[in-house]
Amino acid sequence: MLQKLDQYFKRPLGLILIVAYKGIFGLVEIVLGSLDLFLVYVVRHVATSEFISVWITKELAEDPQDIFINWLLSHAGWVKSSLAVGWVLIILGAIKIILAIGVWYRLWIVRDIGVIFFSGVAVYGVYELAVNFSLLKMIILFFDMLILFYFWQALPKHLGPRKKIMNGNN
Fold it and tell me: Is 87 in contact with 29 (CB distance < 8 Å)?
């Protein structure tokens, strides 16, 4: 079955898997980032409505120690950070899709950008792992390191020779 994929796509299996992995996760990140931005918009719209502000004022006037209302007010700051998370997810997803398309079409510039991008992701992953260790983060870091190794060592074998840039002095 795997050999049929190689023959069908005329690409090595590793290349097919990297493109599928980065393309799928790039799409997932874009969808989740868009969903996050949509939910932030809805929450902002609902929170600024007159009905909600009147309701909160009425509830606090009745019971200043209302646990639910105080909890809601204490968590109102998440909207701003969630907005940033949504945009970061969309941007990272777009970068991953661009890298996947570039790798599929065997572009050297995408390989170079990919090595830089995945090196940054790996450095950040090591930092995150040191600060907040979890098994999931370690597994994700392992796969990111494998992809970095693939971009750095294995991918150049499949891209063919680099094209030389001609300058006007020749």
Answer: no
d(CA 135, CA 137): 5
What percentage of the chain reaches a pLDDT higher than 70?
Answer: 86
Q: Is residue 117 a contact partner of residue 170, using CB atoms and an 8 Å limit?
A: no
Cβ(31)–Cβ(86) under 8 Å? Answer: no
Name the residue among 143, 139, 126, 159 with its Cα closest to residue 22: 143
36, 39, 41, 42 alpha-carbon torsion, rounded to 10°: 180
Chain segment 22-76, per-residue pLDDT in tens: 899 999 999 999 998 898 888 777 766 677 777 777 877 888 887 877 777 776 6
Do the beta carbons of residue 27 and residue 100 sit within 8 Å?
Answer: no
Residue 5: per-residue pLDDT: 61
pTM of the model: 0.69
Letter for the amino acid at 69? I
Domain boundaries of the chain, sorted by first residue = 10-92, 107-156
What are the Cα distances from residue 51, in Å, to 56, 58, 59, 158? 9, 10, 12, 61
